[in-house]
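Record format v2
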Amino acid sequence: MPLDSEKTLKVGSGKQFGAEQAEELVRIEHLSKEYVQRRPLTGAEFTVRALEDANLTIRRGITLALVGESGAGKSTLGRCLALLEEPDSGEIWFDGKNLLKLSRRELFPMHRQIQLVFQDPTSALNPGMTAEEIITEPLAIHREGTKAQRRERARELMEQVDLPARLEHKRPLELSGGQRQRLAIARALALKPKLLVLDEALSSLDLLNQELILKLLADLQRIHSLTYLHISHDLRLVSQFADEVAVMHDRRIVEQQPASELFMQPHDRYTQELLAAMPSLESICAERLA
Amino acid sequence: MTKRRKYRGVLILLAAFHCLILFAGFFAPYDFATQNRDVPFAPPTGLHFVDAQGNFHARPFIYGLKSNPGHPMTLVAEQGEKYPLRFFVQGSRYKLAGLFNVNLHFFGVEGPAPVFLMGSDGYGRDQFSRFLYGGQISLLAGLLAAFLSVSLGIVLGAVSGFYGGWIDAALMRGGELFLALPWLYLLFAVRASMPLHIAAGQVFLLLIAVIGLIGWARPARLIRGVVLSAKERNFVLAAKGFGASDGYVLCRHVMPQTYGVALTQMTLLIPQYVLAEVTLSFLGVGVGEPMPSWGTLLAALQQYYVLSSYWWMFLPALILVPLFLAYYAVADAFQERLKPATL
Amino acid sequence: MRYITQRFFHAVLLLIAVSFFSFALLQLAPGDFFDAMRLNPQISRQTIGTLRSEYGLDKPLPIRYERWLRSVLKGELGLSLASNSPVAPLLRERARNTLLLSGAATVLAWLLALPIGIWAAVKRGGWADRACGLATSTILAVPDLLLFLALLLLAVRTGWFPTGGMASAGVDDLDRWGRLKDVAFHLALPAMGLALATMPALIRHIRSSMIEALESPFLRAARGHGIPRTRLVLRYAFPAASNPLISLFGFSVATMLSASALAEIVLSWPGLGPLLVESILSRDVFVVVGIVMLSSVFLVAGNLIADLLLFASDPRIRTE
C-alpha cells in the first residue's frame, strides 16, 4: 500500500513549532528506580536497577520518541510517567504540578490526563469484557456521565479510531490484532488525556497495521491536540513520525534533540553507534530531505 | 460435540439424583426410623410383572416375606398373596422441604407386605428410605462443607495473593500447619475437640463446620496462585492507570479469573467431604443413631455376619461410586470450559 | 548444605506449631476424661477433683502445655488417662505397626504404579492407555471405605486371609522365621488394600510426568539421534521426570497415612488408627494429642526426605 503522499517525512519538516517556544508539558528530573527480584529456585533476592538519574522534557503538542535497546529502562520511565509505577527518587513535573508530591486524592484526577497504551493489546484488555465495557470503564471509574451517555461516548470513540460500531459487543478475542490496539487507543482517549504514552504500541503489529495506526495517531493528535511519548526500539519506524527523539542508554537519557538534528548530527557516542547500526537510515534521511 | 452431550447427560443424571434426595420424603415409602422387627435383614423386594400362573400384570406387584426354611436367619419371598405397587399413595407424614406437612408418597404398597427396594437392616428399617434420608445428611454435609472450604479459601487466597507481604506469609504458614497433618487425623483431632454427645441437629452443623474449616488450605493456595498471576496482567495495570483503587481492581478484574478454579475445586471437594462425613459417622463419631447418614447405614457391615450374609447392606456404598464418578466428570468439564480466557 | 539445614529448621518449627495447635484444640473441648466417672454415684466428687488435679487437668492452658512439653522432652508424651501410664510406650508399638503397614503398602503401590504409569505414558493414546485411564478413574471413584470392606468380605468368605490382627494364636511357639511369615500373612490384606487405594492417583501422576518428559524437546532430539526406545524411556525420560515424581512421593506420604488409619480400623490392624478412635471416644486427651503429633512427625519427615532426595537428584536446586 503506497504511502500517503501527503504524509511526507516528519524528520526535519512536519510540525515546526520553533521548538524552543513550545511550552513544556512534562519535565522528568533525576528519576531512579530499582526492582527487587527473587531467584527462581532458592528465593534469594537481588536488585535490578531500571532507571538511574533519568532526565527528560516533553513539550506540548509534539511527538517525542524514546529510543534505546531493550532493557535500557524505557518502559519503566513510561510507566512511572503514567503513574503505574512509583520511582524511588526524582521528580516528575506535569503541567506545573509535581506528581510525586501529590496525595492519593489529588493524584486521582491526574490519571485522566496521562494515559498509557501497552505493547500487547491482547494482554491489556480484559478478555471477559466487551469492547463497549472496555471503553466505558475509565468513564465509570471517574463517574462521568450516565450509562447512556457513556455508551454514546463509546460509540463516538470507536468511530474516531475507525472501529465499526457493530463490534461494540465483541470481546477482545474476537477482534484482530489491529482492532485490539485501536480499542486500547479508544479506551486511552476516553478521558480526554493531554499526554499519551505509547509503550512499544506498534511493535506487535504487522507493517500494514503499523502504517494505519500511525496515521490514526497523527490524525488524533491533530484533532485533540495530544502530546505523545512514543517508546520504541525501532529507529526506522521512529524516523517516520517523531518530532523529537530522546535516546536512552544504560538507564539514563544520553541525548535529546529535535529529530532532524539527531539523525543528521548525533552528539552522543552511543547515539552514533545506534545510528551506525542502521546503515539505510542515512540514505533514507538524505533521500527524504531532498 | 459428543463430549459436551456426554457432560450434559451426566449433569442431568446428577441433578436428578439430587432431586431424589431433596424430596426424600416423597420418594421414600417409609420413614427413616420406622422399625419392623418382624422382618430384620430382609433382602431387596423383587418387583414382579408375571405371577406364578404366568399371567402378565401391567402393574408390578410384590410378595410377602417369610422365613427361609433352608437358612434360618434369612427371609425370602413368599409366593402367594400378591400386593400391587401403587403410585402416589398416602403414607406416613413428613415435612416437604421442611415446611409443609404432607403425607403423599411416590409409591407404596397396601397391605402388610413391606416393599424394601434395598432390603432392610437389623431393625427391619427400609434401607431405601434410609438411603434417601441419609443422602440429605451426607450429601448436604459434603456440599455445604465444600462450599465453606472454597469460600474461605477464596477469601484468604485472594487476600494473600493480592496484598502479599506479611499477611501472605502468615496465611501461607498457617495453611502449612493444616497441610502438615494427614487430613483424616486432623479431622479426628478436630472432632475430638468438640463435645461428643450433643443434639443431632447440632452435630450435623458441627461436622460441616469441622470438615469445611480444615480444608481451606489447598483451595486457598490455588486461588492465591491465580490471583498472583492475574494481578500482574496488563489489563489490571491498565485499570490502575485510570486511577482505579485496589479494591475495584480486585473485584472487577482479578476475582473473575478465579471463578473457574474455585468451581472446579468445589466440585472435586464434594465427594471427598461426603466421604469424610460418611467415615466419621461410620466410626461412630459423626451423626448418631437413628439419624440415617450413609455412614451409619454402612456401620452394620462392621459385623462379620452382616458383612458376609446380607449383600444388600453394601448398596449405599456401591451407589457412591457412580455418584463420585459423575462429580469427577463434572469437575473435568468445568476445568475445560472455565479456563481463564487467554490467547 | 544450607538448603538442607533450612528445610530441617523449617520442619522443626512446623512441628512445634502443630503441637501447640493440636494441644490447644483438644483442650478446647468442654468436659474431660473424668466426666464418665461423674455418673457413677460411688465415686465422690472429691475423688474426681483429686484425680483431676493429679493429672493437672484443672490448671490453665499454658501450664498444661508446658507440662506436656516437658513430658515430651523426657520422652513420655504425657500420661494416658485410661491406662494411667505414659503415652509414649503405648504409641511405640502401634506406631511401629502403622509404619510397617504404610511402608509395605507404599513399596507395593510404587512397585506396581511405576511400570504401569510408564507403560501407559509410552503407549499414550492407544487402547491400553485408555483402558488404564478408565480403570484408574473407576478405582479413584470407589471410596476407600468400600474397598476395605470389600476386601474384608473377601477374607471372610474365602478364608484366604486372616480377617484382622497382626498375629495368629500360638504364634509364640513359632521360630523367628515362622513369626515373620505369620506377620506377613496378616499384613497381606491391609497392605494390598492400601496399595490399591493409593495406586490410581500415583499411576495418573506418573503417567503425566512421563508424558511431559517424553514430549520435551531434548528427548525428541535424542530420538532423532537414533537412540533405542527402551533406553530413551529409562535413561532419558525417567530421570527427567524424577523431580515431579519425588515431589509426588512426598505428597503421597500424607494420603498414605490418612488412608492407613481407615484401613487399620476396618481391617483390624493394630496401628495408630484404631487407638485414635478409641481415645477420642474415651476422651483420653494426651493419647490423642500424641497420635496427632506422631502422624504429623511422619508426614513432615516424609516430606523432608523427599526434599533431600530432590536436593540430591536435581542439580538445579544445588546451585544457588
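The longest strand of chain C covers residues 79-80.
Chain C has a mean pLDDT of 82.
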